[in-house]
Amino acid sequence: MNRKKLAAAAVSSAIVAAAAWAVQALADHAASPLAGVTGGADQQLIERGRYLAQVGDCVACHTAKGGKPFAGGLGIASPIGTIYSSNITPDEKTGIGGYTLQAFDRAVRHGIAKDGSTLYPAMPYASYAKVEPSDVKALYAYFMNGVQPVSQANRATDIPWPLSMRWPLRFWRMIFAPAAVADGAPPPEGSAARGRYLVAGLGHCGECHTPRGVGLQMKTLSDADPLYLSGGVVDGYLAKSLRGDVKDGLGAWSEADIAAFLKSGRTGHAAAFGGMKDVVEDSTQHMSDADLTSIARYLKTLSPIRGPEGALRPDETVALELRAGTGAGNGALTYVDNCAACHRTSGAGYGGTFPKLGLNSVVNSDDPGSLITLVLKGGEMPWTKAAPTHYGMPGFADRLTDRDIADVLTFVRSSWGNRAPAVTAERVAKLRKALGAAPPPNRPENG
């Protein structure tokens, strides 16, 4: 098909899509239980919406670094270019001040903008389709009445033509986005059913913790599928499995452990890092204890992806060798020189301060991406009211070679009872380049 025919087809498809959207919008307005809400909502509804906006972590994506809350402009990397989040303050000209409740609902749960175009799925409407209309109503009340309007024009994407054309996204939405749910009977507070609703919907946990398919869609939206919440890769980090696997999931975590992690960002098992640090700071630490318990109870219902497996057992062999000074090899020596002061020769770390490495589910994940990224770039624990101390780990990109990092991580992943595959220098080099980390020191590689 030549360029003129292609353009004509695109225009025709867009006209058909816009007409269909307009007809559907009128029908929805007539029948929707959301009809009738405008500005001036009561304070109780606004406060409920404020809480739900925290559960959904809306501020994280819709606030640029150093920018005003919800004014957009945050760059979100995608395989086809950078997408910039939109202004969702109630500014009439540049924000969503002109949105009716129905238009707001169609954007949040259906992925359709006010002009009828399909939103990029960087907006997790495939997950938000599972948010009930009554909660959307509360969110709308908050954004229209509880958020300061900011006049800030939305920034265009950095996606090149023809990938920047919006009309093909309509077909992505039709294939991969589920139908929006209706209101149902509220599940009891603290129940696994409430946790399931929060995880699948506003929490949109699957967007990071579920693997992606060839269309960049979540491979599954159903917790009956063992791939659901089995782990995904985001910005060089592995968003770990939340299923019941003992080795690299939540099998060894109790409900209390999970709730404490979401509230404080750290437990005896692990500490939050990467994108999860922001989720804890901006979202989960503000959730009620009942909702945190609900999430924990729900996650503990998820079966292991691999089926029954034996628990990891602590092994003191390496700890004794390091204490005696008999540990040999580049991995062991690099660990003693760079890691042992905080994580200790026993790999036990210091509870609530420096994470333990022995029997750690992140350390034992098959994919070492998170560990490589942490060693290259460093990381910080979240600041939370429950744990206000703010600890960090420096990056070692300019101190350690690719071989050093591969060796030390292989050492860590095979010590103190850990059982995880070796790390290669090639994988480290690839991630170093992708992350734009500092070049390695100019000295000969070992081994």
TrEMBL record:
Residues binding heme c 1, per UniProt: 58, 61-62
Q: Which GO terms describe its cellular component?
A: plasma membrane
Q: Which UniProt keywords apply?
A: Cell membrane, Electron transport, Heme, Iron, Membrane, Metal-binding, Repeat, Signal, Transport
Does the keyword field hold Membrane?
yes
The superkingdom of the source organism is Bacteria
Instruction: Identify the InterPro entries for this entry.
Output: Cyt_c-like_dom, Cyt_c-like_dom_sf, Cyt_C_IC, Cytochrome_c-type_DH, Membr-bd_ADH_cyt_c
Q: Which cofactor does it need?
A: heme c
List where in the cell it is found. Answer: Cell membrane
Q: Where is the signal peptide?
A: 1-27
* Keyword Membrane among record annotations: yes
Question: How many cofactors are bound and how?
Answer: Binds 3 heme c groups covalently per subunit.
Q: Where does heme c 3 bind?
A: 339, 342-343
Could you cite one Gene Ontology molecular function of this protein? oxidoreductase activity, acting on CH-OH group of donors
Q: Where does heme c 2 bind?
A: 205, 208-209
List residues of the Cytochrome c domain: 44-147, 190-303, 326-416
User: PANTHER family, from UniProt?
Assistant: ALCOHOL DEHYDROGENASE CYTOCHROME C SUBUNIT, BLL4482 PROTEIN-RELATED
Protein's recorded name: Cytochrome c, class I
Source organism of this protein record: Caballeronia ptereochthonis
